[in-house]
Specification:
heterodimer; A: mainly alpha; about 75% helix; globular; B: Rossmann fold; GMP Synthetase, Chain A, domain 3; six-stranded mixed sheet; four-stranded antiparallel sheet; 13 helices; 20 strands; about 30% helix
């Protein structure tokens, strides 16, 4: 898989994780989605797709 | 079944995308990351907003790497301490609310007030990741187990290495709360593959092992990874550790308030800058960037410290940097020899720069001297002068100490070109340390130590 294809999938995954984080009223699920969001963010930086510094704080 | 797919596990680099990226592309990527971290710090950290306003620069004015180098001020530990003192413990240095803290550390404060270090979960993950580059390059994978002869206190020390083992997916074996003998027994019992320690403690465990009749070279340890002080990139020290443990020795250079900035090269001659998560400059005493190949003060920007951003932070470490390939295959900047000394430990004897790491390397060339030493620096009317206090090896007869002193002084004179006095000490007479050893004793007036001028933030 190319870098661009990998990034496209990560961005899509991150958007869906963020939606679920917002929609859920279950603390365990919200925290797990926060962490998934963070790992998507890390993966994007690792591939040079530089966005925000810290997603869990900047999303608020 | 394995944690990583076989074709992934066979990869030479942890992140091949950036670790083999061309220099020009890496520098373009750095600029984007720097712009992001500067905007973030300006928006969220009162300390940075005030610093940039004092220097009449706004984040959007940093359009090129030249802007970054020339317009942005350095920042030093004292300014961070001052910002923290406004409202302790973190004060105006903080960029996020404490709700986002994952862990907090502090420096010992041995030279003043302790510096507080907040870590978000994001920072902790990336501190860990910064270790994985050296683990992976050394051939360590999820199947390996890592032994930590370390008391898990408030000092950052090997906490980040532990975070790295978690990130890699390997096994942690904790030697916390035990004395050295109990740790050695634990190594025999649990048979870990990797031991992490300061070079001093890795060698000290050898003395303990001898005392209980244990041969460390016959243990399960195949890799020793050292950090916390120079040694892993000093050939003689590294060789002493490898001989003692019958293992390969690698290094990681880090700074408590920044994290693990420089994973060791797998070829063992130095360290690389972890360019995924850090940017660095190397500057002279005027604050000007020195060319590749030259020695200067290491100035680091972290992309990790989102709790307490640090941009163009003065480390006071002396390094030689180069963009020349070291041979391991990465394009990341290389620092042969690792950390050469501290700027405040810079010694100039009759016009010759003498680095403490060079003195340590020379000591190992003298048969009969042990690895335990202290370096005392004084000043007469015109020059720095250096005296090395070094312990003799236990097997050496005390009547031969005079001869040993003359041998050591001759080695220094021929290798460095200046006279360095040597005092041979009895075995066990110098203090032992579990973390960083205190080896440098500076008796010079402050005016004769390294002073960085130019664009400081003060």
């Amino acid at each position: 898989m190319t870098r661009e294809e990998t990034l496209e999938r990560i961005r899509d995954l991150q958007a869906r994780v963020q939606e679920l984080r917002q929609a859920s009223d279950n603390p365990a699920i919200e925290r797990t989605m926060q962490l998934l969001d963070l790992y998507c963010h890390m993966a994007r930086w690792e591939l040079g797709d530089v966005q925000a510094m810290i997603p869990e704080a900047e999303a608020r | 079944m394995k944690l990583y797919k076989p074709e992934v596990e066979a990869q030479r680099f942890w992140n091949p995308y950036t670790q083999t990226m061309a220099r020009a592309d890496l520098d373009r990527l750095h600029l984007r990351k720097l712009q992001t971290v500067i905007a973030y710090a300006y928006a969220r950290s009162p300390m940075y907003r005030k610093l940039l306003e004092r220097h009449k620069v706004r984040p959007e004015q940093i359009r090129t790497m030249d802007d970054f180098v020339k317009r942005l001020p350095f920042i030093d530990k004292k300014e961070v301490l001052d910002a923290q003192a406004v409202s302790p413990p973190f004060g105006e240095a903080l960029a996020v609310s404490e709700e986002f803290f994952h862990q907090r550390f502090a420096t010992s404060g041995s030279t003043g007030a302790p510096l507080h270090i907040p870590l978000t979960y994001h920072s902790a993950e990336l501190w860990g990741e910064s270790w994985v580059y050296v683990y992976w390059a050394a051939g360590l994978r999820a199947r390996h187990s890592f032994y930590f002869p370390f008391n898990w206190g408030i000092f950052a020390a090997f906490w980040s290495a532990y975070m790295g083992v978690r990130r890699l997916g390997a096994t942690v074996v904790s030697g916390g709360g035990l004395d050295s003998k109990a740790r050695l027994r634990q190594i025999e019992q649990y048979r870990p593959d990797v031991m992490l320690a300061t070079p001093t403690y890795a060698l000290y465990l050898g003395e303990t092992a001898r005392g209980i009749g244990m041969d460390l070279a016959k243990t399960s340890i195949s890799h020793v990874i050292v950090a916390g002080e120079p040694g892993g990139s000093i050939p003689a020290t590294r060789q002493a550790i490898e001989d003692l443990w019958g293992a390969k020795c690698y290094e990681l250079y880090g700074i408590a308030e920044l994290g693990p900035t420089n994973p060791g090269c797998p070829l063992q001659g130095g360290v690389h800058l972890c360019e995924d998560w850090y940017h660095a400059l190397v500057v002279d005493e005027s604050g000007n960037t020195v060319p590749y190949g030259e020695v200067g003060e290491h100035i680091v920007t972290s992309y990790i410290q989102d709790g307490q951003p640090l941009i163009k932070y003065r480390t006071h470490d002396l390094v030689r940097w180069t963009d020349r390939p070291c041979g391991c295959g990465t394009t990341w900047l290389y620092y042969p020899g690792g950390v050469l000394g501290r700027t405040d430990h810079m010694i100039i004897v009759k016009g010759v720069n003498v680095y403490p790491s060079a003195v340590e390397a020379m000591l190992h060339r003298v048969t009969g001297l042990s690895e335990h030493y202290e370096l005392h620096v004084g000043r007469d009317a015109a020059n720095d002068f250096v005296t090395v206090k070094a312990e003799a090896r236990p097997e050496l007869d005390e009547r031969r100490y005079g001869e040993l002193r003359r041998d050591a002084e001759a080695v220094f004179k021929s290798a460095i070109g200046v006279s360095i006095g040597v005092e041979v000490q009895k075995p066990g007479s110098l203090p032992r340390y579990e973390l960083k050893a205190k080896r440098f004793f500076d008796h010079r007036p402050a005016a004769h130590r390294w002073q960085l001028g130019g664009r400081t933030g003060a």
